[in-house]
Amino acid sequence: MIVLGIESSCDETAVGIVENGHILHSNAIASSMDVQAMYGGVVPELAARSHMEAVIPAVEKSLLQANMTWDDIDAIAVTYGAGLGGSLLIGVLTARTLAITKHKPLYAINHVEAHIYANFLTSTSLPDYVLPAEQPQFPVLALIASGGHSQIVFFRDHFDYTLLGQTLDDAIGEAFDKVAKIIGLPYPGGPKVERLATEGNPHAYPLPKAKLAGKYDFSFSGVKTAVLRTAQAAIGADFTFPSFQLAERLSDTQKADIAASFTRVALETVIDKLLLAYEEFAPKQVIIAGGVAASTPLRNMLAERLPIDITYTDRKLCTDNGAMVATLGCFTAMHGLPVADPRTLDIAPNLSM
Ligand code: KG4
Ligand code: ZN
């Protein structure tokens, strides 16, 4: 079962090809991040326009990278939610058209679920990929931490899962991006905040951790506002001082201390909840998926606090990609789950797990 997966839910136009849910044949990505960086974040209209230009070249690049033709492809999988409406529409319409014209079955994929399936890839002939030697063993506890999502999910088996908790406001990556903006770092801010945090004191500023009714839920809006107030206070201004002028007034030390304090509190927030879930559900394995899984301090903190080791997939498969969509497409097909109708498949921007 060889599946071509198309991903276009945010600012990455990505197409991957995967065999039997474990062999990675290609992972082609065209990002409009450089365009989005000019505006300090993803502008939905611009993202949709770049998907339109990039999607067919990405499909062709993916086939070329895999050294395959359409004859080798058994099915097409596409992210239909969650994500930006205009962006999803380009991927879904492309996949629908290809499914009809190339006579392939079509599978509709949930983006957040797909992030987890990136961890099921175990072999590849592509250079520069380091993959886990074995697929995860169920039951699996998964944390999805990205720019759009923060969720803890318990998987008893494939397609048998419970959403334990999620963010009630901002996603963790989004909070990193917003804090980056306050201290004058360009989009996407996560990796840059991580780098600057190594130069700061993680206990310099006492930022709050949200206390919520839901045992496994998170919130990042409070800590984000606390960062803004902290930055205003650090330069001796009050809450009316405009956030976009803060970066030029903050000293390098203040910026590094804010980055370090925020990184510590944001990561502890998700790790505290993940550990609670680990104790309650006793999984065989823990998976960290999504863009924030690339975070070295997150990996270090987990290695210190979690009783079992975590095997991470290649960082290129942590952020949005088409291979994760193709992988989940393989499992969907191999489990005999229903195909989507290529004439009617609609997008679901608010799809949850
Ligand atoms: O999974 P992803 O590529 O896209 C979404 O589905 O959102 O995740 C991108 C997010 C961005 O918010 C980015 O700032 C964050 O992941 N990120 C990080 C790191 N690398 C990426 N956040 C913290 N530390 C990092 N090292
Ligand atoms: Zn994502």
Overview of this protein structure:
This protein is α/β, with parallel strands linked by helices and about 350 residues long. It has two domains: about 1-135 and about 315-335, ATPase, nucleotide binding domain (Nucleotidyltransferase, domain 5, 2-Layer Sandwich); about 140-305, Nucleotidyltransferase, domain 5, CATH 3.30.420.40. Helices cover about 40% and strands about 20% of the residues. The protein has eleven helices and ten strands. It has helices at about 35-40, 45-65, 85-100, 110-115, 170-180, 190-195, 220-235, 245-250, 250-280, 295-305, 320-335; strands spanning about 1-5, 10-20, 25-30, 75-80, 105-110, 125, 140-145, 150-155, 160-165, 285-290. The strands form two sheets. The protein has a six-stranded mixed beta sheet, with helices on both faces. A hairpin with a 3-residue loop joins strand 2 (about 10-20) and strand 3. Helix 5 (about 170-180) crosses helix 6, helix 5 packs parallel to helix 7 (about 220-235) and helix 6 crosses helix 9 (about 250-280). The two termini are about 25 Å apart. The mean pLDDT is about 95. The structure holds 5'-O-[(R)-(carboxyoxy)(hydroxy)phosphoryl]adenosine and zinc ion (ZN).
